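User: Here's a structure from my thesis project, written as structure tokens. My advisor, Dr. K., wants to see whether a designed sequence matches the one we expressed. Can you design one independently, without my sequence as a hint?
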């Protein structure tokens, strides 16, 4: 015999099935959301460890093998100051500025903007002093030469783009808040470009530091007279190589954190 069911019974069963599917979907999305949060926290932890580790390794290299830093009367130690300030500015402070919108996403956006800008100010100050230190260190030589190497060319281009990025960002995303309603559309259009250029500049900064490390390694570990040979891979060469690999890895990790849509702040294109 066939069982005949009225329309109300069919509608009830259909509703129950839809509720079950919705419940399963919500559970799955909840699990995925938790996985994304744990994954995000892990990547942030890795990025922060690498940022502090790269700066710490640079300081260890300079003070253990390079004799420390100074501002005047010693070309080698003045260049040491240049290395520390450039890695501190281009990599550490710049990296922290980029990660501010990931690490402080629970804050009001204006507070995150201030943190982001503050790190940029620290970075720009460090880079400026580091550049002056390098020029002064080179000037001690009898026949000083400046800006002839690939390292210096990439570095100057990076500094120029960094300064332009800071100026445009400061005016567009902070000063223009004074007339918020009138400029919101402009800031929405500028934001994707600002983010992309920030990553491009960070990668250029990594390239600048890598070429600088290789230039220094070839000079200080040339194998002539009382200098060890870089090709023999002495301890100092190992430190320089590990530092270089760390900087390269940081470029990859920070780009991944910024470009991964799962880690984006909600309503990221709504400027407030």
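Assistant: Designed independently from the structure alone:
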């Amino acid at each position: 015999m066939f069982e005949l069911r009225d329309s109300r019974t069919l509608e009830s069963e259909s509703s129950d099935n839809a509720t079950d599917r919705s419940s399963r979907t919500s559970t799955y999305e909840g699990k995925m959301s938790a996985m994304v949060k744990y994954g995000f926290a892990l990547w942030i932890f890795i990025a922060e460890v690498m940022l502090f580790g790269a700066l710490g390794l640079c300081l260890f290299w300079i003070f253990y093998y390079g004799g420390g830093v100074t501002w005047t009367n010693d070309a080698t130690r003045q260049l040491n100051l240049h290395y520390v300030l450039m890695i501190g500015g281009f990599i550490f402070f710049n990296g922290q500025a980029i990660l501010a919108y990931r690490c402080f996403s629970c804050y009001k956006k204006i507070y995150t903007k201030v943190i982001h800008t503050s790190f940029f100010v620290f970075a720009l100050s460090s880079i400026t002093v580091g550049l002056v230190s390098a020029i002064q260190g080179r000037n001690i030589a009898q026949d000083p030469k400046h800006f002839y190497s690939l390292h210096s060319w990439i570095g100057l281009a990076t500094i120029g783009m960094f300064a332009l990025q800071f100026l445009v960002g400061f005016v567009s995303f902070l000063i223009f808040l004074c007339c918020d309603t009138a400029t919101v559309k402009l800031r929405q259009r500028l934001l994707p470009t600002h983010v992309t250029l920030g990553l491009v500049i960070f990668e250029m900064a990594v390239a600048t530091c890598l070429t600088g490390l290789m230039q220094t390694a070839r000079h200080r570990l040339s194998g002539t007279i009382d200098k060890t040979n870089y090709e023999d891979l002495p301890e100092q060469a190992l430190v320089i190589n590990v530092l270089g690999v760390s900087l390269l890895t940081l470029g990859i990790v920070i780009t991944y954190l910024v470009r991964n849509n799962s880690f984006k702040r909600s309503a990221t294109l709504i400027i407030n």
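When you compare it with your expressed construct, this may help: The CA atoms of residues 97 and 117 lie 7 Å apart.
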